[in-house]
């Protein structure tokens, strides 16, 4: 069996205070999560390991996530970043270790966990034969919890309001990415798991995503993210997990 050397490192950058911004404040496009103790561990990964094609991607991985925190997963191609994110979401089986939500394994706490999870992966998850607005309307219905932010408001925030009535197959890669990210605003999930969300986005759109993440964290949300593009995390409570180095 071929074993890849793994360096696991979590770096924490402190922030002086957590600012709670209500929904009707200067950030009307974000949800406020005020029902959880900011010191409570919401997501916990314990001794997580994964092997693919006789190669160990990661092993003995431990970290946790509280309200207002962001974890960035770094590593070269093939180091297991996407696999880690999909495992956290329950989309891939756990080879070893546990993933907990609010102190319970996600297999036993599945309904509550999924009701608080939004995953945006490499594939946009948009339907080609539906318009941008129809895609978001369906996302809201499937979530079972309606956000006070409408599909039109979300598309406007992401800069694709003019595309609301276009079929998604007619959109550019960047426009489709914006539609996929607009799902973050029409859902009430507090845990955002984002796999390369800045792909195909211009600088203005990247800045918008950064603002959305900042507002989400300020309101008590949580983020797990991978990105090859450099982002300014100044002022955010951030941890870094490094895979595949060494």
Explain the overall architecture.
By secondary structure, the protein is of the alpha/beta class. It folds into 2 domains: 1-11 and 37-116 and 190-202 and 213-246, P-loop containing nucleotide triphosphate hydrolases (Rossmann fold, 3-Layer(aba) Sandwich); 124-189, no CATH class. 24% of the residues lie in helices and 26% in strands. The chain contains 6 helices and 11 strands. The strands form 2 sheets. It has a 6-stranded mixed beta sheet with strand order 2-11-5-10-9-8, with helices on both faces. Strands 1-4-3-6-7 form a 5-stranded mixed beta sheet. Helix 6 (203-218) links the parallel strand 9 and strand 10. The radius of gyration is 18 Å and the shape is globular. Residues 1-28 have low confidence and may be disordered.
Structural class: alpha/beta
Number of E-type strands: 11
Number of folding domains? 2
Series of H and E elements: EEEEEHEEHEHHHEHEE
The radius of gyration is 18 Å
Q: Based on the coordinates given, report the CATH architecture of the largest domain.
A: 3-Layer(aba) Sandwich
Low-confidence stretches: 1-28
Kindly report the spatial arrangement of strands forming the biggest sheet.
Answer: 2-11-5-10-9-8
* Number of distinct helices: 6
Mean pLDDT: 83
What is the molecular shape?
globular
Helical residue percent band: 10-25%
How far apart, in Å, are the first and last alpha carbons?
Answer: 19 Å
Relative strand content: 25-35%
CATH class of the largest domain: Alpha Beta
Can you say what the CATH homologous superfamily of the largest domain is?
P-loop containing nucleotide triphosphate hydrolases
Largest sheet: 6 strands, mixed
